[in-house]
Write the structure tokens for this entry.
Amino acid sequence: MDSSTCELALRMGDNALILGQRLAEWLGHGPQLEEDIAAANIALDLIGQARLWLSLAGRLEGRGRDEDALAYLRDQHEFRNCTMVELPNGDYAFTIVRRTLFDAYQRVLLERLAGGADEGFAAIAAKSKKEADYHWRHSADWTLRFGDGTEESHRRAQDALDRLWGYTHELFAPDAADPEADALRGPWLELVGPVLKQATLTIPADRAFLSGGKRGVHSEHLGYILAEMQFLQRAYPGARW
Amino acid sequence: MVDAWQVLAGIGDPEIPVVSITELGIVREVAQRPGSVEVAITPTYSGCPAMQAIEEEIVNRLQQAGYGEVKVKTVLAPAWSTDWITPAARDKLKQFGIAPPGRVNLFPRSVACPRCGSARTERVSEFGSTACKAHYRCLECLEPFDYFKPL
């Protein structure tokens, strides 16, 4: 099996795993009970998807690593998630705007993979796409409410968009693992553009900035996530319950 | 020996015990051989925590029914859909207080209250007590209720 297929499966799995972990941080801290529950549900979907992708990546790699070995025993530079998902949650507007940008990306990417020739990818993608549609409905709805809400909520949503926009370029940067990544930017903009416009938010000007998470070059924030997520397996190797 | 499908039809969903795993469309295939059986199941949601409990229950019940070797495998394609839930199970959901899913369509016009039947309901939250449900409220009888989301 060629390594680029395994690499793509790792990216899918790590994106879902790390964003799922971030969303789980909201548990008990959500701005309202319903949002606390929504964050838990979406995190659960994402971690379920991560298990499927990482299991597939382990099989493609062929070195006997399963989902747990990949999630708990890899170091920071071996993670292949895009940088955007590892950034700290910030306020709820940042959490929501990040998900709006990411959920739209998932929808267009999963749609492509679901129709692809690789059966292993297509099965997971088709299943995840149905869940991503619900995630998108939720995040797009809140982006509208924040952007077109009060002066304060608008300011926070715009600030989140200004800080996040630069990190979206990485998603569409083609490379060996995903040579067609740039073709997704058009369909993605068709989803994201109208929602941001209706939310009265302004898309910031593009700058020459390219984050490197999917190549394993991460921000300083990923290490803290891994320290928390991997602690048990690192401190007590092979621990089970 | 009792037919394996019949045994499986007696296993309730761990989170919605009024409906069985066969009625929900979770059991996809049963391959019976003398002394052994292999059951293929499909997850409802990727992260549904009930799947492991379901797997263990399948093994327990089939072994109790005399099937020596029981294997459970997970299949992902085609992806599970609420369209596979049987009409009888939809009635049971409704009687249990859960509005059954409409046809797979992301924007249903309205969801009828499972208690009073009124179409005057509103969504409180897209996400409810389990991965498969949304939280609604009836504007007629004022009762909150769960809606099994079309997927």
